[in-house]
Amino acid sequence: MYKSLRQPIVCVLGHVDHGKTSILDVIRGTSVAKKEVGGITQKIGAFEVDMESFYRASRTEIGMNKLKIPGLLFIDTPGHVAFSNMRARGGALADIAILVVDINEGFKPQTVESIEILKRFKTPFIVAANKIDLIPFFTNIKNISFRDLQKTQRNEYNEELDKRLYNLVNKFYEFGLSTDRYDRITDFSKTIAIVPVSAKMAIGISDALLMLAGLAQRFLERNIEYVGGLGKGTVIEVKKEESLGLTLDTVLYQGSLKKGDRLAVSTRNGPAVSKVKAIFVSGKGKKLLEKSEVFSAQGIRVVLADKLEVIPGSPAIAIVNDTREAFDEIMKES
Ligand code: GTP
Ligand code: MG
Ligand code: NA
Prior knowledge:
Blueprint: E1 9-14, H1 20-28, E2 45-50, H2 51-58, E3 71-76, H3 84-93, E4 96-102, H4 109-120, E5 125-130, H5 146-152, H6 155-174, E6 179-181, E7 192-196, H7 205-223, E8 232-241, E9 245-254, E10 256-258, E11 262-267, E12 270-282, E13 288-291, E14 293-295, E15 298-304, E16 315-319, H8 323-333
Parallel strand pairs: 1-3, 1-4, 4-5, 5-7, 6-7
Antiparallel strand pairs: 2-3, 8-9, 8-16, 9-15, 10-14, 11-12, 11-16, 12-13, 12-15
Helix pairs in contact: 3-4
The structure holds guanosine-5'-triphosphate, magnesium ion and sodium ion.
Magnesium ion binds near residues 20, 21, 41 and 76.
Protein name: Translation initiation factor IF-2
Function: Function in general translation initiation by promoting the binding of the formylmethionine-tRNA to ribosomes. Seems to function along with eIF-2.
Organism: Oxyplasma meridianum
């Protein structure tokens, strides 16, 4: 049904603790951030938001209506300095991105690193200026759009917010990027949108999603056309489970993958091939659904027949007949 356009991949990048996972928690209506060890994300996570949920979260159908996509695949990345390879990997997968900056802390080393990744891959992005609830004079309020928030706050608050925003705008300018508060932009093809948000209070999330929808529309219509053929993915996590065998959590970004396909992967001993024993996608809640075939873009769990030492972050490529071609590609991308 949705085979003509694939889901766009939306990557969330930014400095440690600036609120990436918390923003995603608001979007998907769960709480992952609080359960993380030490409150630090240590791996890439992927989850899908269908259009119905997207409309609910963005409180409108404007924007995405013209874009006939099945949903969005969000990718969370760690912001800790130690995980720079995972940030780059997430950035490489992204069609569009959200750069998260704590509005009170401003630019930090991994903010700059994230900007460099976005520039390198020419990824269009919006900026979520998070933690606006910590700005002085904040009057407590929850679950509100940014537009409506301003009417509920004192002038002192709105002035403090603008001061911090313009510090950000100036910083972006130093990096050669033209940005502005999203509701002051007249030409979105020239200026990157900054959306003030608070993940903690669920403020501005609908505005951010609307900007994201606009971005998707401007940049993606050609890029997200579904490319059929061999499934190609990036392995983001490897687990050896007693009952299942070797499982690979993978972002399938191109083509399709079937149960029984042979999959080329990168292992500690070089490229290797194994048969796909089973494929799972996440269903409602924590449940996994088994599928006989999956189409990109999707977060999938692949069970392989052999217990290989697969390297997380490496490519996984389905093979039709020529093994060498897949191996060449594995070597090139590893
Ligand atoms: P890493 O994945 O470790 O890089 O961090 P992150 O960017 O995913 O940040 P995370 O969502 O884990 O949030 C870090 C801390 O900031 C947590 O204690 C959150 O509760 C807090 N936090 C996130 N968003 C907000 C916000 O809008 N306001 C306030 N006051 N705190 C927030
Ligand atoms: Mg996180
Ligand atoms: Na964190």
